[in-house]
């Protein structure tokens, strides 16, 4: 894995590690007050970034665009604003950072929607099915080989 897909996946794993450490801290302290921040870190950081990384790995043409690089930057900024913003909101300090992080994250999701739509338009040939990708003679040879070993 290379390029933008790698950076999305690397970031996702980093956010997973942070999310696990955050969860362990909450469990050890028996204080789950910040669980909404923990949940957003895991869902937006780990799950969403991993899905985006897999998409860009599978659709390298989409990853090669400036819009995709902007998507990574905006998504990262949104997460970095959102999670601490949720902590501040829970503690009663301010909701401004959480609101800003939400808007930036939404902008990132809209960017991804545009990238997804553009990649669909640019695709001329549908992806091959698994059945067409597997040579039927190999399947028959495999079947006969298994039958003789049974």
How would you describe this protein?
With 150 residues, the chain is mainly alpha-helical. The protein contains 7 helices and no strands. Helix 1 runs antiparallel to helix 2. The longest helix has 27 residues. The two termini are 39 Å apart. The model has no long low-confidence stretch (mean pLDDT 87).
List the helices and strands and how they pair.
Layout lengths: L2 H27 L5 H24 L1 H4 L2 H25 L5 H27 L7 H4 L2 H14 L1
Helix pairs in contact: 1-2, 2-4, 4-5
Structure summarized in a few sentences:
This protein is mainly α. Helices cover 83% and strands 0% of the residues.
Mean pLDDT: 87
Helix content, binned percent: over 70%
DSSP strand count: 0
What string, H for helix and E for strand, traces the elements in order?
HHHHHHH
Count of alpha and pi helical runs: 7
Q: What is the rounded distance between the termini?
A: 39 Å
Major sheet: size, sense and barrel closure? Answer: none
Low-confidence region ranges: none
Shape: globular
